[in-house]
Design brief:
Blueprint (H helix, E strand, L loop, with lengths): L18 E2 L2 E4 L2 E4 L18 H11 L4 E4 L12 E2 L9 E4 L7 E3 L2 E7 L8 E4 L16 E9 L6 E8 L6 E8 L5 E8 L4 E6 L8 E8 L8 E5 L2 E2 L3 E2 L15 E3 L2 E2 L5 E2 L3 E10 L15 H13 L2
Antiparallel strand pairs: 1-2, 2-3, 4-22, 5-6, 6-9, 7-8, 8-22, 9-19, 10-15, 10-22, 11-12, 11-19, 12-13, 13-14, 14-18, 15-16, 16-17, 20-21
Helix pairs in contact: 1-2
Length: 313
């Protein structure tokens, strides 16, 4: 639990230099990742997440289990520059074409507006292949969770949130993907290598435009569709299967981990997300929707409430 605030310090104050998993803190705000920067002992730079909130998010996501969490520290939207990972594994992503819409302050964090344009002008984030983002070996799967806060600007057409999915003809490399279908409904699928064998769950209610949604997808590693769950704003919503073919397990593919698009035939990037976003994450645990004790909140609800808090929703 956080220590009591010293006299005269604001709520959430953290002593300069105190560490939270994966970040360096100064004053009350996160001011850097991977290098030591010390801010004043009061409020830190505008738009940067409170250190105690970040610490609690990282704890819920599982600490060392976190593969990536992008709280968007950067005020510079220059293309092809790093997006810092606040997780312990330092999987920094790259921004693409984000100079069109620089990040803006939303609540107590910096959010990005992604333009949804077609290749090569679509805005997105990605990272080269790494084993940390794979949760299957072709025979068995392991649990994982992914999530993001979004506000749709266009709910027609396919919008990709988080994926490891390359549907290039004859060299398909598909693991998992969370996205909206052409009718705006939410889907999470896990693939057995290709585009024709997968398990999944969907919510058959289209996401509305200009509305913030906090979306989590979880999978228990059971290799069956019933192991997949979708949560929107803290409530489980999946109400239909999205399964096809014969599924054994995901494979550890050589594929980019992307936020905001997938790769299609000929290396063309498609299905760019059109809207605002904050806080994409991937972690190697299944977030629990069961309260640990009477009167307590589940991990799903606690994490949703933290997202609401930092986004000012």
């Amino acid at each position: 639990m956080p220590l009591p605030n010293p006299p005269g310090r604001p709520p959430g104050w953290i002593p300069p230099g105190q560490r939270v998993p994966g970040v360096i803190l100064g004053g009350s705000k996160v001011v850097g990742v991977g290098h030591r920067v010390v801010a004043s002992s009061g409020a830190g730079p505008s738009g940067l997440i409170d250190g105690h909130d970040l610490s609690e998010i990282m704890t819920i996501l599982g600490g060392r289990a976190v593969r990536m969490f992008l709280p968007f520290f950067e005020t510079d939207a220059a293309d092809d520059t790093p997006v810092q990972d606040a997780g312990p594994r330092a999987h920094h992503f790259l921004k693409h074409n984000t100079s069109d819409y620089p990040p803006y302050i939303k609540g107590h964090v910096l959010a990005y507006r992604l333009n949804g344009l077609v290749f090569p002008n679509g805005e997105a984030f990605d990272m080269a292949d790494h084993d940390d983002f794979s949760f299957g070996d072709g025979n068995t799967d392991s649990p994982f969770s992914i999530g993001i806060a979004v506000r749709m600007h266009n709910n027609l057409g396919v919008n990709y949130f988080i994926s490891r999915y390359d549907m290039t003809t004859d060299v398909e490399a598909c693991e998992y993907r969370m996205y909206t279908a052409p009718d705006g409904t939410l889907v999470l699928r896990c693939h057995d290598h290709d585009t024709t064998n997968y398990i999944g769950r969907t919510w058959n209610v289209p996401l509305a435009i200009d509305t913030w949604y906090i979306i989590f997808g979880t999978y228990d590693g059971s290799c069956v569709q019933e192991g997949i769950r979708l949560y929107v704003n803290g409530v489980r919503v999946d109400n239909a299967n999205a399964t096809l073919g014969d599924y054994t397990a995901m494979h550890n593919e050589v594929v980019v981990t992307s936020v905001g698009y997938i790769e299609s035939a000929g290396g063309v990037l498609v299905n760019f997300f059109d809207g605002d976003c904050w806080g994409p994450f991937i972690t190697g645990k299944r977030l629990s929707d069961v309260p640990p004790a009477p009167g307590a909140q589940s991990e799903v609800v606690r994490l949703t409430n933290l997202y609401r808090k930092v986004l000012g929703l």
